[in-house]
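thought: user wants a sequence for this fold. calling inverse folding tool.
action: design(structure=
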């Protein structure tokens, strides 16, 4: 069979295409493929990785000229891998001439070119040659034989890169006729197969024009000929029985020959059928592949199922991208005693030759037993691993590493060996039965499992004691038996060793029911009284057992004690089944209680809480109800305790310490004596705190200091004063020995209920006068101007109070009088207070001299209100930055104020003074600019400045600026006009 491909296997160089092609040629299919039209050089290193995969057996076709030159056409791909050429131009097809209608579905029906036309031409030659070989010569050429024949007999290529010869069908047929006219030919396809010893191989061969005997030899890997038969010429079919002693695990060839010709088969492998007497090769028809962790393809090349096709040229291999470990699981048709595995490696090491392996066997493909692991010699074609026979029908081979570190794993064949007649050891797990049971118990199940799953048989040594039916044991009577579990085995399992267990059947215990013994108070004897009707309990239905005899009952001692044993005697068993029963001796229990005695004649006294629960008794104690004739004496030292030490009314008082003595004291008991009395709380006082003196603050709240503690708290008691405590003076006014009342204390702590506290409590403290400072405020005026109004500032008033709480009249004097420039004292005095200690602080009046101002009044006041400025020691560029910007200049006298802003080059403190034409200072202030040297809007009130009214005229605004962050200093002036508009 020939397949023609018109696409390039190199340009479309997917490994899967290469694998499919090789799989086809390995199966005898001739593949003819186009080299492609890309003018690619296949010998270029670009294709080295693809070419490294080897020869996939295809015939690669290039495009040559359609004339006698047979030269490479310019577009054809070329190289040593291109085998032959075909016409790649002007190829006519079925629609030649008028038959071609040019329709949309008529492509390639007139003519076409390229390797697409060259490939079917070569394919036609292949078909013609193979037809002659098969029908005339009786042979079928392999893909590689066909390729070699085309190359050897073709017409030589002309110019251009290598595309191979043009096929010559006539020359090829003549070559075949010359070869096979006197040739021997092995027809049977044994190439790449795997056969076993002790099997029969039917060899078919052909030959013509030969004389003499035809011998058959086996050619081993060392090229040594091993004689099989001297003459097989009697028939063209020869049955070769493969000797069991032949060396296995290697590749062989068959050679038939006579004096004129010979033929050699392809490689095949022989493996041993029976490595030893107890091991046999399992036919692969009994094996299937059920799992592969990875495979290149599900079918065909690389598929896992290839390991069972008895051929060495079809393999299972994993994908290149998946690393170890890789696993393949085989399943046998039945479970066997599997004792060996042989691994046949791939002929191609690119697929990964397994070196490190692990072999596991399972019965259910869930639980696996590792039977072998190790390393294989990658040079051996077949590696056989022997191990102890292990029962199972799943075998898992895991590849842990491959030759040369390859991530892939592959196998051409995997064979399994079994141990014929192998029987597995069988063991019985016999679930433990009780050592003893009791007559009358219900049947119980016997449970034993053989690991083979075969049924287990149970037997009893005495069926009168225990009888067995299937897996149930029935109790028949009292005694001892041996129960045996056994399993005889079958074709797959050996007989199991018996497992035995011993069982004792005890007599059934019966009890006397229906009688009781009565408790009694001590009365001086051990006679017990029974009541009720005696009956047997637990007798099985159908058994005859009766109770006989007359009963009597005695305490074990006459003295008083709880739960004394009472022994009942006189009963016995009778009846036909009495031997299987045991009468449990009847022992009952009853109590002889001591006779109670009481103490009379004493009382408990009330007390104040004292930290303990001790109580005081009064009166004379005596016993009542002692029986005549018994010697019982009341003794000991009595003590009494309250039920709790804490304060409470009508508490229980328990009296202890009394004791009984005398010969008969054990037969009596003294009843607990309880009385009642009251524990009253202990009174406490709070100490450790004082009321602090305070400075007058306008309220009567007092402050406490110190740590409040309680006096007279008993040692060990935890009682603390707590609560929201308040303290107040009798009024808020300052005085030295004022009364302070304290409230709010409460008792807290675990022992607080045992104490009482009296409130309120009273202390003494002083309210001191508060300091009050009255300070005269500093003022400034110009020389010759009237004094401004003097004011004071008060510091120290209590919250909510002001000057109105003071007595007297405030007076403020200037000392001395005068108008010369300089500083004068402003002295306050005159006010008084009972709650304040007043301190007067003088202020300062500063009189500034008149300033002689000389400037020329300029009729031009500057554009946009900028005044002329006169900065010193500054460049002209900085002078332009110093300006007074008026919002209204001149300003109308009827306006309330003049508004202006000042700008200097840097952040500064501005001292701004306004003078009139005579040099008198009318206003003075200090202003801080922002970081850009700009002030806010400044206002000069025209109505009244220091008592003087502003009139129409020209006024001088003088600015002195000092930089905040540098030594910058600027002085400049501006003129402001005041006019009257009508």
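)
observation: tool returned 982 residues.
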């Amino acid at each position: 069979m020939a397949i023609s491909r018109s696409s390039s296997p190199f340009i479309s160089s997917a490994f899967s295409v290469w694998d499919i092609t090789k799989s086809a040629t390995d199966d005898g299919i001739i593949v003819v493929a186009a080299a492609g039209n890309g003018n690619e050089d296949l010998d270029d290193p670009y294709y080295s990785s693809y070419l490294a995969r080897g020869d996939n057996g295809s015939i690669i076709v290039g495009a040559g000229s359609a004339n006698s030159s047979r030269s490479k056409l310019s577009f054809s791909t070329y190289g040593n891998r291109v085998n032959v050429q075909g016409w790649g131009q002007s190829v006519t097809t079925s629609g030649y001439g008028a038959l071609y209608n040019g329709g949309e579905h008529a492509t390639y029906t007139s003519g076409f070119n390229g390797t697409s036309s060259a490939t079917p031409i070569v394919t036609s030659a292949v078909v013609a040659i193979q037809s002659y070989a098969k029908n005339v010569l009786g042979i079928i050429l392999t893909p590689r034989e066909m390729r070699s024949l085309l190359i050897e007999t073709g017409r030589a290529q002309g110019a251009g890169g290598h595309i191979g010869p043009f096929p010559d069908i006539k020359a090829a047929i003549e070559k075949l006729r010359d070869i096979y006219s006197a040739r021997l030919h092995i027809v049977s396809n044994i190439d790449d197969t795997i056969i076993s010893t002790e099997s029969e191989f039917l060899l078919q061969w052909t030959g013509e024009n030969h004389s003499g005997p035809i011998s058959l030899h086996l050619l081993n890997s060392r090229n040594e000929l091993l004689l099989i038969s001297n003459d097989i010429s009697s028939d063209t079919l020869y049955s070769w029985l493969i000797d069991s002693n032949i060396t296995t695990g290697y590749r062989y060839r068959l050679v038939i020959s006579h004096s004129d010709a010979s033929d050699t088969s392809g490689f095949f492998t022989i493996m041993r059928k029976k490595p030893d007497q107890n091991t046999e090769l399992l036919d692969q028809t009994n094996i299937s592949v059920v799992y592969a962790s990875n495979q290149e393809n599900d079918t065909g090349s690389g598929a896992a199922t290839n390991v069972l096709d008895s051929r060495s040229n079809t393999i299972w291999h994993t994908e290149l991208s998946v690393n170890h470990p890789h696993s393949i699981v085989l399943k046998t048709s039945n479970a066997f005693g599997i004792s060996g595995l042989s691994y046949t490696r791939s002929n191609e090491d690119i697929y990964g030759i397994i070196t490190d392996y692990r072999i596991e066997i399972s019965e259910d493909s869930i639980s696996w037993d590792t039977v072998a692991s190790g390393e294989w010699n990658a040079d051996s074609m077949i590696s056989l691993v022997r191990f102890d026979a292990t029962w199972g029908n799943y075998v898992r081979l895991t590849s842990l590493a491959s030759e040369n570190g390859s991530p892939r794993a592959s196998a051409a064949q995997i064979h399994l060996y079994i141990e014929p007649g192998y029987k597995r050891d069988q063991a019985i797990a016999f679930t433990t039965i009780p050592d003893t049971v009791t007559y009358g118990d219900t049947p119980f199940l016997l449970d034993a499992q053989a690991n083979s799953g075969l049924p287990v048989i149970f037997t009893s040594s005495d069926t009168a004691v225990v009888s067995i039916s299937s897996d149930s044991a029935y109790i028949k009577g009292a005694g001892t038996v041996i129960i045996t579990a056994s399993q005889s085995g079958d074709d797959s399992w050996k007989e199991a060793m018996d497992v035995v267990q011993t069982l004792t059947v005890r007599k059934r215990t019966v009890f006397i029911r229906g009688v009781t013994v009565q408790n009694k108070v001590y009365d001086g004897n051990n006679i017990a009284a029974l009541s009720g009707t005696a009956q047997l309990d637990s007798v099985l239905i159908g058994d005859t057992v009766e109770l006989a005899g007359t009963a009597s009952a005695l305490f074990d001692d006459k003295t008083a004690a709880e739960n004394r044993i009472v022994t009942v005697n006189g009963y016995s068993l009778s009846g036909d089944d009495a031997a299987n029963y045991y009468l449990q001796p009847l022992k009952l229990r009853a109590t002889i209680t001591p006779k109670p005695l009481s103490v009379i004649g004493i009382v408990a006294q009330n007390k104040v809480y004292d930290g303990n629960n001790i109580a005081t008794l009064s009166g004379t104690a005596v016993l009542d109800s002692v029986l005549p004739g018994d010697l019982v004496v009341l003794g000991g030292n009595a003590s009494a305790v309250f039920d709790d030490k804490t304060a409470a009314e009508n508490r229980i008082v328990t009296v202890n310490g009394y004791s009984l003595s005398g010969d008969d004291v054990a037969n009596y008991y003294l009843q607990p004596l309880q009385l009642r009395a009251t524990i009253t709380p202990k009174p406490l006082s709070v100490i450790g705190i004082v009321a602090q003196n305070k400075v007058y603050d306008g309220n009567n709240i007092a402050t406490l200091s110190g740590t409040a503690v309680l006096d007279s708290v008993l040692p060990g008691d935890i009682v603390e004063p707590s609560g929201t405590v308040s303290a107040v003076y009798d009024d808020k006014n300052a005085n030295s020995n004022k009364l302070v009342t304290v409230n709010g204390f409460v008792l807290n702590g675990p022992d607080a209920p045992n104490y009482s506290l009296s409130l309120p409590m009273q202390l003494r403290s002083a309210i001191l006068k508060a300091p009050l400072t009255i300070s005269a405020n500093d003022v400034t005026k110009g020389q010759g101007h009237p004094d401004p109004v003097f004011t004071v500032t008060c510091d120290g008033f209590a919250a909510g109070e002001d000057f109105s709480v003071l007595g007297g009249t405030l007076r403020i004097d200037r000392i001395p009088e005068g108008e010369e420039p300089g500083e004068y004292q402003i002295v306050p005095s005159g006010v008084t207070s009972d709650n304040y200690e007043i301190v007067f602080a003088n202020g300062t009046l500063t009189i500034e001299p008149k300033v002689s101002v000389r400037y020329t009044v300029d009729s031009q006041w500057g554009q946009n209100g900028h005044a002329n400025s006169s900065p010193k020691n500054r460049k002209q560029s900085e002078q332009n930055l110093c300006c007074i910007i008026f919002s209204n200049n001149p300003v109308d006298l009827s306006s309330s104020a003049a508004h202006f802003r000042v700008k200097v080059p840097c952040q500064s403190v501005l001292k701004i003074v306004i003078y009139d034409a005579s040099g008198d200072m009318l206003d003075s202030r200090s202003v801080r600019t922002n970081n850009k040297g700009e002030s806010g809007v400044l206002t000069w009130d025209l109505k009244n400045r220091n008592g003087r009214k502003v009139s129409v005229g020209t006024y001088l605004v003088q600015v002195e600026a000092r930089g905040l962050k540098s030594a910058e200093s600027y002085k400049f002036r501006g003129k402001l006009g005041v006019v009257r508009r009508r």
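thought: summarizing for user.
answer: Here is the designed sequence. The mean pLDDT is 85.
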